[in-house]
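Progress narrative, Year 2. Work on N-dimethylarginine dimethylaminohydrolase from Deinococcus metallilatus advanced from sequence curation to structure prediction during this period.
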Amino acid sequence: MTQTTPPQTDQPQTNQPFHQSMTAPLRRVLVRRPDQAFAVEDPEAWHYAARPDLAAAQAEHDAFTDILRKHGAEVVYHDMEQPGRADSVFVYDPALITREGAILLNPGKALRQGEQDALGRRLEELGVPVLGRLTGEQYAEGGDMFWLDDQTLAIGRTFRTTQAGVDALRALLEPRGVEVQVYDMPVGDGADACLHLMSVISPVAPDAAVVYPRLMPVPLWQELQRRGLRLIEVPDAEFPTQGSNVLAITPAVCLMLAGNPVTRTRLEDAGFTVESYVGNELSLKAEGGPTCLTKPLVRRA
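Result:
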């Protein structure tokens, strides 16, 4: 398979809104194809299971983006140089997209510091205005937040997202009419591991979410119940293989890692069309599934 980045459309799109949704049809999405930085020499330092094979990871990524295009998404690439930043392939984390533009976040993982600067420049090239940014000790990562609805953002307080980060986001979002709900996550496997809020929940339709209840904050579980969401539970055996990391392409079609047959069957039984990709190098070794690999820019019916 070719080792060059596939052709892309780079024309800025300034037609607002962008999105405040996790599940509206995906129209434009930013990705980053793995480069040499992803083939880390010291996987333990990055908390990777092993050193990824770069050629195999690139082939997996190409197949992954082919699925997105198949369902009508325009795929654009974040190709600015990020030397030494292996995790920059996980473009979901350094920014939050709102209907007015982007807020640049501030990764709590020290090895990811600086990713937000390059991503911000790329977003502006693509016509996404930067509305603000977190600085100093205002730490937050995108994996700790998702839109509960188009006016409500759920944020997990974790090792990667601090109270100062939450306060900064609230100050930027509440004047724009966004309610921020904060949920405390458990310690999990410790500070070096990656237990984001979205490690345990993936919205797949306005009325449905894939969840791993064992590690969910009780108030979030109660909020989902209050909202009447259908909860599709991931079995214990499929949590380590990222069965709970599912990307909604439309409210009826979702994308997940291959190798999670029980979760897939439960999604299909709930009426979803399920696509899957092989991510042995791209995802399983590096702790990042389909939501992590994408930064949806435009979602709309």
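The domain at 26-299 is CATH 3.75.10.10 (L-arginine/glycine Amidinotransferase; Chain A). The chain has one domain: 26-299.
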